[in-house]
Each structure stands twice: as structure tokens, then as C-alpha cells.
Design a protein that fits this description.
Elements lengths: L6 E4 L5 E4 L2 H27 L1 H8 L3 H29 L1 H19 L5 H29 L5 H31 L1 H6 L2 H10 L7 H14 L14 H25 L2 H9 L3 H28 L2 H21 L3 H27 L7 H16 L2 H12 L2 H6 L4 H10 L8 H4 L4
Antiparallel strand pairs: 1-2
Helix pairs in contact: 1-4, 1-5, 1-6, 1-8, 3-4, 3-5, 3-15, 3-16, 4-5, 4-8, 5-6, 6-12, 6-14, 10-14, 10-15, 10-16, 10-18, 11-12, 12-13, 12-14, 13-14, 13-18
């Protein structure tokens, strides 16, 4: 446990704002980001080795899409469940449980060839993996200074998610040809256990600790107002609806584009599976970089203008990528669309944490992101069915319209950049 002391400062609204030592802020961001990165590994290894799993289970592409959608049901349940748990039991311990759930379930999925057991384990992987964002983003956001909050929460965390995909792709290239797809699942338990041990050294969120102490004092004061439920607060409801708009696009767009990313290159352009995985790795290197570009600009210029700019660029690149028949041009537009997913998620992850007060930040974030994930449950099934029915181009072209929701969400929401969480999360 760090011996550095957390200081308390006053905000312009008269509330108190903890000043967390930079070393501890970075440690929390890295711990949350590495967990999110290995969540990315557990999530994306499925799509990367999908042909091998499909052959082993003896099912159609449509069934593989259904399994992907069931995974997202788990992701939605985990998002909401772990977010609520983080407000009740704390950020640090809840995050530790999350990584154990998805690490163990991913490994066990590599040991079975039973369709129903495999599907159930993918559901549990979704439940556990969702906690990495649902808990990690509020945790990191509460630990970072206002001027660099998007770099910490969005840049560091989501760039490591991108790195997780790169690791998954590299593992698939090395392991699958030699030992089969099963081993790529089994090894997931190793980093999960190491990260669980590492997280024991972290400091609990100072903001959460203060909020809990204040709640206990109020509980002993009969004259103090009772804590309100999130749905009873009009401004909280409005901010949840904004989160639904932003994350309906973010989540459906992400899963719709990435689950069948390598399949798209194989079917439309005749790439080999190995070539498709290698190019997907390049796309995620671009995403790694654009996470920091988008997050840095959002800290410098503002969340709303940079998110709207990202959505507009995404719409243009999606249309151009879906309509070109030239593989070289697709590689340019495809890398930008995957890269801009990182731009938009980096800003969105930070922005939603800033819309709620500490005592309900985990719950507010979870319901906002979880609402979008409910919409995304259909993405693997719909896109898998559409590719089988209409070919690879039409479903990807249709997704260009999703980002209108992003623009509307940010237009309706407040600007939060360069402000303390005590100010941005104040509700009336």
C-alpha cells in the first residue's frame, strides 16, 4: 500500500476534491487498463479463431453469431451488476472479482467441445469481463486530475484494450497453427491471476472512501435527507438517456464491426485467414494511437466537439470502406474505422463517468453503458445473418448511420472537460 497521502482541495462549488498522488493514479489506470486489455483478449480471441471453433462445434456462422450475442447478454448483465456493486462494496475489490470470473471462464471454455457448455462459459466471460470497464472507468476517473482525466481513463485504459486485441491476434497466429484454438483460451487464466494479485497493492478510490464516510454520517443523523434512488433524480435520468444514445452507437458499432472483421476481409477481398489476422493487428495498432489522440484532444479542447468530430469521421470512413472494391483502399479506411472506435470509446468512457456524483457514479455509468449494450446484443447475430444473406458490404455500410446517435447524445449533454468530478457530477 502506498504511503503517499491523498490531499483534499476545495472546488469552485464549495465541495471538496481529493488530490491523489500521480504515482497512485497511474498505478490504478495501469491496473484497470491491463485488466481491460486481458478482457479484450478474452473477448476478441473468439472472433479471431472463430473458424476453428465453428469447425470443432460443427455449427453454422449464424449459430456462431448467436453465441456472440449470448456473450453480449452476459456483458450487459455484468456491466450493470458490477457497476452497482462498485458503489456498494468499493472499486478495488469489485474489480478484483471481475478479472477472476472472466479469466477462469475463458480458460474452461478452451477445455470443452460441448456447444451448450461452451456457450454458457462465454456468457460468464461476458459477465466478468464487463466489470473491467464498469468498475475500472469510474475508479480511474476518480483518481486522475481534471486536466488529464480523459488521457487516464480513456487513453491509458482503452489503449490497453487495443493492446489486448493485438496480443490475442499474435497469440492466434502463433498458437493455433501448432496447438489449435483451445490453448488460446486456456492460457487466459495466467494473466488474470497475476493481475488479481497485483491489484491487492492498490489504494481504494479516495472519492469513494469520502462518499462512504459521508453516507455513514448521514445514516446516523435523523434530520439528514435520505439518499435518493438514481431513477428519482430528474437530471440523472436525463444523463442516463444521453449515455444510452452514445453507447448504443459505441457498443453496436464496435461489436458489429469487429466480430466479423477478419471474415469480412476473407469473404470480400479473398485474404487468407492469416493475412486477415495480421491486418487486423495493424488496425488495432492504429486504434492504440488514436485512443491517445482523441483523449488528448478531448482534454485540451473539450469532450463534446472532439466526440462529434470523431463520429463524423467515422461515418465517412465507414461508407468509403464498405463501398470500395480495392483491398489497399479498404486497408486505409478499415484501419481508420477501427482506430476511430478507440477515439470514440476513449472519450465516451471518460464522459459518462463525469456525469454522476461519486455515490452513484458506478451505478450511473453501468446503467448508461449497459443500456447501449442491450442494443448491441443483437449486433453479432444481425451482422452474421446479414453477411450470410446479402454479402459483407451491406451490413457494414448500414452501420454508418449509427453515429448520428453519438452526435445527438453529445449535443444534448453538458461539457465536462477541465472540471472536477464534484462539479461535473452535481445533480439537481
Amino acid at each position: 500500500m502506498t504511503t503517499e497521502r491523498t490531499q483534499i482541495a476545495s472546488t469552485t462549488t464549495g465541495t471538496t476534491s481529493p488530490r491523489v498522488p500521480l504515482k497512485q493514479s497511474i498505478l490504478v489506470a495501469l491496473a484497470a487498463g491491463l485488466g481491460y486489455g486481458f478482457d479484450s483478449y478474452a473477448v476478441n480471441i473468439y472472433g479471431l479463431v472463430l473458424p476453428g471453433i465453428q469447425e470443432s462445434l460443427g455449427v453454422s456462422l449464424t449459430v456462431m453469431g448467436i453465441i456472440g450475442s449470448i456473450f453480449l447478454v452476459g456483458y450487459t448483465v455484468g456491466t450493470i451488476g458490477f457497476g452497482i456493486a462498485a458503489d456498494r462494496y468499493g472499486r478495488k475489490d469489485t474489480l478484483g472479482i471481475s478479472i477472476l470470473v472472466y479469466g477462469v471462464s475463458t480458460s474452461l471454455a478452451g477445455l470443452t467441445s460441448n456447444l451448450y457448455l461452451f456457450t454458457g462459459l462465454r456468457f460468464l466471460t461476458g459477465v466478468g469481463g464487463a466489470g473491467e470497464l464498469a468498475v475500472g472507468a469510474p475508479y480511474t476517473s476518480e483518481m486522475f486530475p481534471a486536466k488529464a482525466r480523459c488521457i487516464g481513463t480513456g487513453g491509458i485504459m482503452f489503449s490497453l484494450y487495443s493492446a489486448g486485441y493485438i496480443l490475442a491476434a499474435g497469440t492466434a497466429l502463433v498458437i493455433v497453427p501448432r496447438w489449435g484454438w483451445q490453448l488460446t483460451f486456456i492460457v487466459a487464466v495466467v494473466p488474470a491471476l497475476l493481475l488479481f494479485a497485483f491489484r491487492k497493492s492498490l489504494q481504494e478510490s479516495a472519492r469513494f472512501t469520502v462518499a462512504q464516510a459521508q453516507a455513514r454520517r448521514k445514516a446516523g443523523d435523523a434530520a439528514a435527507p435520505q439518499k435518493r434512488k438514481i431513477w428519482s433524480i430528474p437530471q440523472a435520468r436525463r444523463r442516463i438517456y444521453i449515455g444510452w444514445l452514445i453507447y448504443s452507437a459505441n457498443a453496436f458499432g464496435y461489436w458489429g464491426m469487429t466480430v466479423f472483421l477478419t471474415t469480412y476481409m476473407v469473404q470480400k477481398f479473398g485474404a487468407t485467414p492469416t493475412e486477415a489476422i495480421m491486418w487486423a493487428m495493424v488496425f488495432y495498432i492504429v486504434q492504440f494511437v488514436l485512443c491517445y489522440v482523441g483523449a488528448g484532444l478531448a482534454d485540451l479542447v473539450g469532450r463534446r466537439p472532439m466526440a462529434i468530430l470523431g463520429a463524423l469521421m467515422m461515418m465517412i470512413c465507414t461508407v468509403l470502406g464498405a463501398t470500395t472494391d480495392d483491398f489497399t483502399m479498404y486497408l486505409v479506411y478499415g484501419s481508420l474505422t477501427i482506430g476511430l472506435l478507440g477515439w470514440l470509446w476513449s472519450i465516451g468512457d471518460t464522459y459518462i463517468t463525469e456525469l454522476f456524483p461519486t455515490e452513484i457514479r458506478g451505478t450511473g455509468f453501468a446503467i448508461s453503458v449497459g443500456g447501449g449494450r442491450i442494443v448491441s446484443i443483437a449486433a453479432p447475430f444481425v451482422v452474421g445473418w446479414a453477411i450470410s444473406s446479402f454479402g459483407p458490404s451491406i451490413p457494414y455500410l448500414a452501420m454508418a448511420g449509427l453515429w448520428i446517435l453519438t452526435i445527438v447524445g453529445y449535443v444534448l449533454g453538458p461539457e465536462t472537460a477541465k472540471k472536477e468530478l464534484e462539479e461535473t457530477g452535481a445533480l439537481t
